[in-house]
Prior knowledge:
The complex is a heterodimer. By secondary structure, chain A is α/β, with parallel strands linked by helices. Chain A has helices at 44-51, 73-78, 95-105, 110-123, 139-151, 169-184, 196-202, 220-227, 239-248, 273-284, 299-307, and strands spanning 6-15, 18-28, 33-37, 59-64, 67-68, 80-83, 157-161, 188-193, 205-210, 213-218, 230-235, 254-258, 261-266, 291-295. In chain A, helix 3 packs parallel to helix 5. Chain B is mainly α. Chain B is built from ten helices and no strands. In chain B, helix 6 packs antiparallel against helix 9 (223-236).
Amino acid sequence: MTAPAIEADGLVKHFGDVEAVKGVSFEVPEGRVLGVLGPNGAGKTTSVRMLTTLLRPDGGTARVLGMDVRKDPQQVRANIGLAGQYAAVDENLTGRENLALVGKLTHMSSAEYGARADELLEQFALSDAADRVARTYSGGMRRRLDLAAALVHRPPVLFLDEPTTGLDPQGRNELWGVIEALVSRGTTVLLTTQYLEEADVLADNIVVIDHGSVIAEGTATELKERLGATVVEITMRDDDSTARAVELLAPVGKASRDGKLVRVNVPGGAGARSMLDAVRLLDGEHLDPAAMVLREPTLDDVFLQLTGHSTTDGDESDQGGDQ
Amino acid sequence: MTTITADAPAVVRVNRGHAVGDALTMAWRNLLNLVRNPQLLVFATIQPVIFVLMFRYVFGGAIQGSLPPGQTYVNFLMPGIFVQTIVFGSLTTGVGLADDLSKGLIDRFRSLPMARSAVLVGRTLADLVRNFFVVILMCVVGFIVGWTIGTNVWGLIGAVGIILAFSYSLSWVFAIVGLMVKDAETAQAVSFPILAPLVFASSAFVPVATMPSWLQGWAENQPVSIVVDAARALTIGGPTSEYVIKALLWIVGIVAVCAPIAVNRYRRAV
């Protein structure tokens, strides 16, 4: 049994009086992908910053490949890649120069980083733009260059902090493909995201964080079984019928209301059938909904289930955290 | 190229001793940025030229009268203009760092196994190189508008050397400012009020004797005046050692105090 590639054990971080991270623990085995899921301000970025040596933990320990981030930060840095929400590329350097910069700063020989840059530019579909300054790149291209820059020195462990936030669906799909290819080659990945779908597509295991604490953990399938794999949303026309609908729909799944909106979280497997059941039950009482929708659960549904509050209700107390 | 497919290698151990190489890499990156950023280039070249011309021809006539007999305003002015330009130029050290910080580039550098001092040393070195070219350009413009060296070429080289060393020390002051603020605009806004009294309440443009007496104490001893006076002594003539020694003490003192503070702030910058 080898040590986990990434290990957080009771990590704590305060910013002034605010406890941004309150004892977060998780492990990522070598070659696996952990998705850290949570809303803005949950403490995701702060946790990643501690694991990548950018912030000193106030409590607990963080290890990467068995090396303590506090005692051995330089060795940790030699073995990690970090790509963030910013797309931290130098706008006045070309794509190739950005990669060369990281190559030089990780002390590779010029032949080595030259070949590596060519390879990454090809792999990230940036070969045609390689000698243009990054200022001229689209948002998606910048993110790809940022990720490529994090990979120049072939780090065995990769941290991706909301890698697709702000990208259009096409850019997101492209980036997902690249991350999947990396994982298939054995890189260990920790990925933070606000999107359940993203964690579902990319991660082997998911940790859900809220207000600086882990509130749920499991595979995507396990979480969905627990939290409902499908959501039926029904908009009623008045308060009485809304209340009645919540009662009626109890056999379909866990029903809750928000104004005139009835939300039913349907446990795994039932899928579209649950919609038929809902229609039948409402029609049996001659209730007349204004709208009905069947959809995949979102992070918001997960949060509603786990915490009873939606992601947007949370306070913005994580200063310096997930900006 | 058989090694290329191996994407998940074994644990890498790093060695110490890359401080110089890493700093030069960062200087290379910053100089590329300067060359490719037209706004910075214009700021660095056209502005000093305009200042030389403006002070020489607009204020020259008025101030000439307060100068000791036998001194021409252009000879009095040039050392002042040099120092004024490089003092305002040192602000770009802070602006550049604040920009890197707000764009997440500092995070990238801090996550790499590079020397902790390299980002700051590289940035200040690049700014020194830029200042070198700015001073050369201003010398040329100065000679065109009638500047003459009353000493000799070694005096000129010494004056330029002291001015550049002073610019380097100020880069460290503004490195601290750049690491403490949110973005480039704030860095600029915070720096100006620090600089204005240094530059204008000094001997750079007018003789200190023309100022009210309460201001003279400050104006005679603050570093900008000392450096300007040293550069004047080296280019016009007269006793030099007192000014030069005082100037060097200021320069060494500023670096000795500010460089460790800046590196320490860089380690903690969030």
